[in-house]
Amino acid sequence: MTNVIFAGVGGQGVILASKILMQVAMNAGYDVKESEVHGMAQRGGSVDCNVRYGEKVYSPLIEKGTCDYLVVFEPLEATRKLEYLKPDGTLIVHTERVNPAPVQAGLAKYPDDIETWIAANITNRMVADFGPVLKAVGSQRALNIVMLGVLSNHLEFTPDQWIEAVKGTVKQNFVEMNVKAFTMGREFTIS
Fold first, then answer.
1. What is the mean pLDDT of residues 25-42?
2. Which of 24, 73, 74, 146 sits at a 20 to 30 Å CA gap from 134?
């Protein structure tokens, strides 16, 4: 059983990322279950998706401490989901901040020490600014696909299986850009 959580805010493509992973796993013959939470997502609120795949999956929900891969599109969302990551699980975080409504309204302060805490407490991690990759791809909206590319290095599926799922899931006029985003994410390294 492999457990993956995608977390971010509305508009970052969290749900699409989960749909592509589901398609890759189903195409490979796995049983797949997914659960998503997107309450105030259209207003920039939290969005998260649990994807579980394996020989037989009985529940779509990932229990605390059992997530193999936590893929987070915004740092504050990492703090909300870290309790789900298992001790030897892998955390992948995009460092660009998206201020939640209370911070935008001046009612709260965005925490300054998230990346420091992650570096001190999470062994298997990739914390990076994927902004330069997005610039090279030509779209800020491709973050979800770039991060799938990064995640793909940790999972058993081939690049061709991923690209097939991307092509079958995204709108036809965005296929080329998304394949480029996936490939650049897969090749991304921290210098």
1. 84
2. 24
pLDDT per residue over 74-97, tens digit each? 999 999 999 999 999 999 999 999
> Strand (E) positions, the chain?
2-9, 31-37, 46-54, 67-72, 85-94, 125-128
CATH number of the domain within which 178 lies: 3.40.920.10
For 69-79, write each residue's pLDDT tens digit.
Answer: 999 999 999 99
- Dist. CA 191–CA 173, nearest whole Å: 33
What is the distance in angstroms between the CA of the first residue and the CA of the last residue of the chain?
A: 32
Alpha-carbon torsion, ordered 10, 33, 67, 151, to 10 deg: -70
- Give me the number of domains the chain comprises: 1
Q: Which domain holds residue 100?
A: 2-187
